[in-house]
Amino acid sequence: MRIDIITVLPELIESPLNHSIIKRAQKKGLVSINLHHLRDYTTDKHRTVDDYAFGPDAGMVLKIEPIYKAIEKLKSERDYDEIIYTSPDGEPYTQKLANTLSTKENILILCGHYKGVDHRVREHLITREISIGDYVLSGGELAAAIIVDSVVRLVPGVLSDETSALTDSFQDGLLAPPVYTRPAEFNGWKVPEILLSGNFKEIEKWQMEQAYERTKRLRPNLLRDE
């Protein structure tokens, strides 16, 4: 898998992409993540990427020209399965969507900034708009990092135990059940006896019951969405 990210602040996203699971995935050659500075696609001496919006609203908007040049150059080098724009008014990001993106070969992510991008970019160049929540960030870099992290860990071979991702919250529409580790008793707090029984069939039944109970209590909307 190859992921390209266009940003005005590459330094903001470099650190999250160079540690832990994502770093190991790149070292293994399973994923290639490439940052592209939007200012490299400008033509004026000030490397200007933003301008005032038409109309009375305050705030700056990313200009269409450098974004167009960046996307067109990258598209000339490979075919992209998705060209994603991170935006608070985009499609809500879910585990199901992360699963879908993890099957793609080439993904391009455009990070919004300031008041967003010239809307013609969204109309003519973007194939998918994604929101990580109903709130506004200073830019789309952190949103892009979240998307990359959630997708990369699903790529076959990235996790040492691939079944781990399959038991994550939301994979089956439920929250994950509680998990425990050694010691079996700490400070008088005990691990549920069923988990110490060795009866895997009963343990799986308990886990499913717990997952359903936690989902009903904490995120009932997930059950209504079924």
Task: Record keyword descriptors for this entry.
9 helices; elongated; 226 residues; five-stranded parallel sheet; two-stranded antiparallel sheet; alpha/beta
Tell me what you see in this structure.
- It is a single chain.
- The protein has 226 residues and is α/β, with parallel strands linked by helices.
- Helices cover 35% and strands 19% of the residues.
- It has nine helices and nine strands.
- It has helices at residues 10-14, 20-27, 64-77, 95-101, 119-124, 141-152, 163-166, 200-218, 220-224, and strands at residues 2-7, 32-37, 50-52, 60-62, 82-92, 106-111, 128-131, 185-186, 189-190.
- Strands 2-1-6-5-7 form a five-stranded parallel β-sheet, sandwiched between helices. A two-stranded antiparallel sheet has the order 3-4.
- A hairpin with a 2-residue loop joins strand 8 (185-186) and strand 9 (189-190).
- The longest helix has 19 residues, at 200-218.
- The chain is elongated.
- The two termini are 31 Å apart.
Topology overview:
Elements: E1 2-7, H1 10-14, H2 20-27, E2 32-37, E3 50-52, E4 60-62, H3 64-77, E5 82-92, H4 95-101, E6 106-111, H5 119-124, E7 128-131, H6 141-152, H7 163-166, E8 185-186, E9 189-190, H8 200-218, H9 220-224
Parallel strand pairs: 1-2, 1-6, 5-6, 5-7
Antiparallel strand pairs: 3-4, 8-9
